[in-house]
Amino acid sequence: MKYSDTSGRYALLDELRGLDLVSMMLYHGCWNLVNLFGIQADWYYGLPGHLWQQSICWVFILLSGFCVQLGHHTLRRGAQVFGAGALVTAVTLLFMPEDRVIFGVLTLLGSAMLLTGLLEKPLRHIPPAAGFAISAVLFALTRNVSAGYLGFGSLRLWLPQTLYANCVTAYFGFYPWWFYSTDYFALLPWLFLFWTGFYLYHLVGKERLEPLHRSVCPPLGWLGRNSLMLYLLHQPVIYGVLTVVFLLLRRGWRSALKKICKRFLTRSPPCGILLMVRKA
Asked: Among 30, 136, 210, 255, which one is least packed by beta carbons within 10 Å?
């Protein structure tokens, strides 16, 4: 059954974002099971897990760039998302420094929105087809800057190691050997994927988006509309639920309840938000 959307929003875009959010929650649930609860899952660190993680990243960032034109106050929204990213960094440094998040996906999206808002006029002067092609090519060329080179396959231009100096250079994509973050999305290459979505919106055109007003799964749409709040809350909630389940399974429900009360009343649980175990 399809539902009409009377709010003026593109319901299917909200639902796609909600579906990607569900995929991310499941991925992070698996991360918890593997890294915090000792469940063996070789596939998670193999190709299947990598493809799953990358699908989440690509859809989330591309869709964010596509939708940036659908709202107003891009600079204000960018500042809010960037601030949420700073909050994630502060919380993880305080409560779980071994799994700290520095320059995570929220920092990237906030930065991309701020840069897009500041550069919106010159960006709009570029024809959509050219902007889309240029952004996609630049994303491909800079995809491996964290590995030390530009290009792909056998076509590689190695970059000077002096670029990989400190945390400031890490923000742009050039992180030194000692830098560590469980969720790392630098400006390069991901800003270009964001701008690929930005130009894709103009390439498609507003008239062709009319069918996207139709809703096919309202619950996913609700998730998509509240994605920032759910993004910030999902990992602590997942960790808490899994802790309860494993304590009940291992210790019996009576002793487990006592253990749960003692644990959560005497120490703060990890509050990681987005734990991408690989540097993207």
From this structure: 210
Predicted confidence (pLDDT) at residue 268 exceeds the cutoff of 50: no
Query: What is the per-residue pLDDT across 79-108, written as a single tens digit (0 to 9) for each?
Result: 999 999 999 999 999 988 888 899 999 999
Residue 168 exposed, middle or buried by CB count within 10 Å (0-12, 13-18, 19+): exposed
Structure tokens at 21: 């959010």
DSSP assignments along 201-227, one per residue: HHHH-GGGGGGGGSBS-HHHHHHHHTH
220 within 8 A of 87, measured Cβ to Cβ: no
Degrees, nearest 5: CA angle 191-196-197: 100
Residue 156 parent element (H or E): strand 155-158
The pTM for the full model equals 0.84
Rounded to 5 degrees, what are φ and ψ at 152? -155, 160
Residue 82 near residue 106, CB atoms below 8 Å? yes
Predicted local confidence at residue 7, as pLDDT: 56
Look at residue 155 and tell me whether its pLDDT is greater than 90.
no
Q: Which residues pair with 215 in a beta bridge?
A: 3
115: tokens are: 């840069």
Other beta carbons less than 10 A from residue 240's beta carbon: 15
pLDDT tens string 29-68: 998 898 888 888 899 999 999 999 999 999 999 999 999 9
Which helix H or strand E contains 168, and what residues bound it?
helix 167-172
**For 3, which DSSP code?**
B
Buried b (16+ CB within 10 A) or exposed e, 17-51: bbbbbebbbebbbbbbbbebeeeeeeebeeeebee
Cα separation, 267 vs 97, in Å, equals 15
CA neighbor of 230 nearest in space, from 187, 271, 273, 280: 273
